[in-house]
Design goal:
alpha/beta, two-stranded parallel ribbon, 12 helices, globular
C-alpha cells in the first residue's frame, strides 16, 4: 500500500498521543478515518486538528468506546460500517493503551486486570471486531501497537512492570503468529507489530485518569502508597509533604511527555512509513532500535543491574519506556 488516499482506516485510542497523530496524518493524505476513545472531549480535539489539515473530501467519524469491552468494539464496528456505508476497511490501528498495574503482588488485581484488559484485550477485541472488514478489502493492513516492553519486560531495576509488559508481549506474539495465519487464510491481509520506545505522549496522565490515579488529584491513601514504594527502595519521604509528592508526580508526567526523544507526530510518521514499506516489525525511536540490539546481543543480561546501568549511561533509559 504505497499511498493511503481513498482508503478507509480505523484507529483506536485516537483521542491523544500517537492515535491522534495517526488520525491527522492519515486524513492529510486523503484517507477516511474512524476513531474511538473513552474520552469524547479528547476526540473532539483530534477531530478539529484532523479536519484542519485533511485532504478534500475526507470523511471522519468518532465513537466513544472502551476497547477492553468486546460489545463496545462490536458497536464501533457497526458504526463504521453504517457511517461509511461500507463492508470493508483497509487499515486497522489497534493503538489504544494505558500504563499501570506494575506489580502482581503489590498492586490491586483490579488495576492489574484493567491495564492488561486494555493493552492486550483491546488488541484482540479490535482485531475480532474488524477482521471481517479487513478480509473484505482488496488489500488490508492490521497494525498492532506493542512496545519495547514487548521484548524487554522492564522499566528499571526498582520498578515492577508486569501487567503492561505481559500485555505487550502478548500483542507481539499474537501479531507475529498472524503473519503465518494470514499467509495461509487471507494472504491479502498483512500484519505489523509496532514497538515504540519513549514517545512524547500523555500516557501517564491518561493512565491515571482511567485508573483513578490522576497525578493532580492523588488521594492521601495513594500518596501513602507512594511513600511505601519509595521506602522499599531505601528512600525516606517522611519529611516531604503530600502536596510536594503530588507536584513531583505531576512534574514527572509532564517531563515524560515534553522531553521524550521522539514526538508522537514523528512516531506516527514512522509507523505509516513502515506500513507503506511492508515492514512487519516497526521499531519506533532510536532508543527502541538500540535497546532491541542490546537485548538480542545478550538476553541473559537484560535484567541485571549492570545492564540497566549501561542503558542509563548511554542515555537510553531515562523515564522508563513504552
Amino acid at each position: 500500500m504505497n499511498e493511503f488516499s481513498g482508503r478507509i482506516a480505523v484507529v483506536t485510542g485516537g483521542g491523544s498521543g500517537m492515535g491522534r497523530e495517526l488520525v491527522a496524518q492519515l486524513a492529510a493524505e486523503g484517507c477516511d478515518v474512524a476513531f474511538c476513545d473513552v474520552s469524547a472531549d479528547a476526540m473532539a480535539e483530534t477531530l478539529e486538528l484532523a479536519r484542519a489539515g485533511a485532504a478534500s473530501g475526507v470523511r471522519l467519524t468518532t465513537f466513544v468506546a472502551d476497547v477492553s469491552d468486546r460489545a463496545q468494539m462490536d458497536a464501533f464496528q457497526r458504526h463504521v460500517a453504517e457511517s461509511f456505508s461500507t463492508d470493508h476497511i483497509h487499515l486497522l490501528f489497534n493503538n489504544a493503551g494505558i500504563g499501570g498495574g506494575g506489580s502482581v503482588i503489590h498492586d490491586s488485581s483490579e488495576q492489574w486486570d484493567r491495564v492488561f484488559g486494555i493493552c492486550w484485550g483491546g488488541v484482540l477485541n479490535g482485531t475480532r471486531a474488524f477482521l471481517p472488514m479487513l478480509v473484505a478489502a482488496d488489500e488490508a493492513h492490521l497494525v498492532n501497537t506493542s512496545s519495547i516492553n514487548g521484548f524487554w519486560a522492564a522499566l528499571g531495576p526498582d520498578i515492577a512492570h508486569t501487567a503492561y509488559s505481559a500485555a505487550k508481549f502478548a500483542v507481539k506474539g499474537f501479531t507475529e503468529a498472524l503473519i503465518t495465519d494470514f499467509a495461509l487464510h487471507a494472504p491479502h491481509v498483512h500484519a505489523h507489530v509496532v514497538m515504540p520506545g519513549h514517545i512524547g505522549t500523555s500516557i501517564i496522565f491518561n493512565s491515571g485518569t482511567v485508573l483513578g490515579r490522576d497525578p493532580k488529584n492523588l488521594t492521601s491513601e495513594q500518596i501513602a502508597e507512594i511513600r511505601d514504594q519509595f521506602g522499599s527502595r531505601g528512600m525516606d519521604l517522611s519529611g516531604v509533604s503530600d502536596e510536594d509528592i503530588r507536584m513531583g508526580v505531576l512534574m514527572r508526567a509532564e517531563a515524560f511527555r515534553d522531553t521524550a526523544p521522539t514526538t508522537a507526530a514523528d512516531a506516527s510518521a514512522i509507523i505509516l512509513n513502515g506500513v507503506r514499506a511492508g515492514t512487519w516489525r516497526i521499531l519506533v525511536g532510536d532508543d527502541a532500535v538500540h535497546l532491541d540490539e542490546k537485548v538480542r546481543a545478550d538476553p541473559t543480561r537484560a535484567y541485571t543491574r549492570e545492564f540497566f546501568d549501561e542503558l542509563r549511561s548511554e542515555g537510553t533509559l531515562q523515564f522508563g519506556q513504552g
